[in-house]
């Protein structure tokens, strides 16, 4: 009998992977605005959470092929037939002998995965009446603060006007080249550093009051020249 060869592949590959991925959305508190005087208002909140996930798996070292041995399983000797010819006896003649090796693919691969997405939540208070009242209180408090600032500004300007005017009356003022000259530059004190345009009327003498003299003595003594 001729030689018989067989390829044994006693290779068993078993692989498995479990990947647990979770996106956690942490919902924070409402956005709180503080306006002073103990006024705080919370508004609706929108949470936008983008995320990117990815996994990669690979085997090292990377071997795309392996050399698979081909064994000699020929059985040509060990028994005889009825005519005395030697035949196989069911036992491999050369156990363990490798005839050659052949290249076999491993099927090894690198695995990659990528996930992109986002999560969004919307939180809104249920009692909108309280929200409106809080907004109205905030607006009133802002108006009150603005009026307080205006009053303080008015008090400052009045005090500046009074002090600058009094100093000008006393003849005291900053030098025009002084950096503080502009503090009182717009202050005007009537009849001191400013005279309003005006006119004076001079009455003409009446005819009855005019004196006409024909006496030379009324003209004074004689003129003398040296």
Task: For the structure shown, list the relevant keywords.
1 helix, alpha+beta, 3-stranded antiparallel sheet, 226 residues, 3 domains, 9 strands
Explain how this protein is built:
The chain has 226 residues and is of the alpha+beta class. The protein is built from one helix and nine strands, in the order βββββββββα. The chain has three domains: 20-58 and 110-125, no CATH class; 59-107, no CATH class; 126-195. The N and C termini lie far apart (182 Å). The radius of gyration is 58 Å and the shape is rod-shaped.
Shape, per Cα inertia axes: rod-shaped
- Could you tell me the mean pLDDT? 79
Low-confidence stretches: none
Distance between the termini: 182 Å
Order of helices and strands: EEEEEEEEEH
Q: Considering DSSP H and I runs of 4 or more, what fraction of the residues is helical?
A: 10-25%
Number of domains: 3
**Beta strands, count:** 9
Strands of the biggest beta sheet: in what spatial order?
Answer: 1-5-8
Reported for the largest beta sheet, the result is:
3 strands, antiparallel
Give the count of helical stretches: 1
User: Strand portion, in percent?
Assistant: 25-35%
- Over the alpha carbons, how many angstroms does the gyration radius reach? 58 Å
Q: What is the SS-derived class?
A: alpha+beta
